[in-house]
Write a structure and sequence with these properties.
Blueprint lengths: L2 H18 L37 H10 L2 H8 L11 H13 L8 H5 L2 H7 L7 H9 L3 H22 L6 H12 L1
């Protein structure tokens, strides 16, 4: 991490600490009888220099996905498409997964991200498959393809766990994993 970014993060941490310190132990409401979350109407601005997406954490997820080699594994082992024209199997699978991670509920929600230049730039993509193409891809799946995709995910998960080394075997991670599994 750049030193300037570290300093900026520390400054923001101090600011929120100073803001929350007076509230330790409780406090009277800001306005008696009114909810605490009562901000004025939101204002929206457009900037020439700064662009953002509402699902900015997706960039970190995409880095993780690429770092563990998931796209390559999907492309080598899934075998749904015969040729990439222009999208590969991994493009389709990740497009659908990222749609869900960004709050999409149906394939048609992909269109929102498809028309967001900042989202496309974040992924380094000229374009992503449209909802109709995503649906065509989904129709090609049969039980065996679902099994292959699950195997790919499970093998990738093992790769991640092996990379975690000693952290993976710690008691806290075991407890967290078992509680997540139990849910």
């Amino acid at each position: 991490m750049k030193a300037s970014v570290g300093r900026q993060l520390e400054r923001e941490k101090r600011k929120i600490g100073a803001r929350l310190a007076p509230l330790m132990g409780g406090k009277e409401p800001k306005t008696p009888g009114a909810p605490e979350l009562n901000a004025p109407r939101a204002r929206y601005e457009i900037s020439d220099r700064i662009r953002a997406v509402p699902c900015g954490g997706l960039a970190a997820m995409h880095d993780l996905v690429r770092g563990v080699g998931l796209p390559e594994s999907i492309d080598e082992q899934l075998g749904i498409l015969k040729r990439a024209r222009p999208y590969r199997d991994s493009d389709h699978v990740l497009n659908i997964a990222y749609n869900v991670l960004c709050g999409g509920h149906v394939l048609d929600d992909i269109e929102v991200r498809r028309n967001d230049a900042t989202f496309l730039d974040m992924l380094g993509a000229e374009a992503i498959p449209d909802p109709t193409t995503a649906a065509d891809f989904c129709r090609r799946f049969d039980g065996e393809a679902v099994g292959r995709l699950m195997r790919i995910f499970n093998e990738t998960r093992l790769t991640v766990w092996n990379r975690m080394g000693s952290i993976h075997s710690s008691e806290g991670v075991k407890r967290a994993r078992s509680s997540v599994t139990a849910v």
